[in-house]
């Protein structure tokens, strides 16, 4: 009997879980840094609705 704590059969499971966590972290960071509606500071949250049309045009392409 092998007394190994980590078996080689679970390596693909760890790889798939690691890839899923990486994709979720990338999506979260991308959304927080790129979306103008996400406001992390208290002052920005107190500002209310964003009515800056110049910033809105720069974040999405309007044809």
Description:
This protein is mainly α and 63 residues long. The chain has one domain (8-59). Helix content is 57%, strand content 0%. It contains 3 helices and no strands. The protein is elongated, with a radius of gyration of 21 Å. The mean pLDDT is 79.
Topology:
Layout: H1 11-34, H2 42-46, H3 53-59
Shape: elongated
CA gyration radius, whole angstroms: 21 Å
The average pLDDT is 79
Beta content: under 5%
What are the main properties of this structure?
mainly alpha; elongated; 63 residues
Write a brief structural summary:
With 63 residues, the protein is mainly alpha-helical. 57% of the residues lie in helices and 0% in strands.
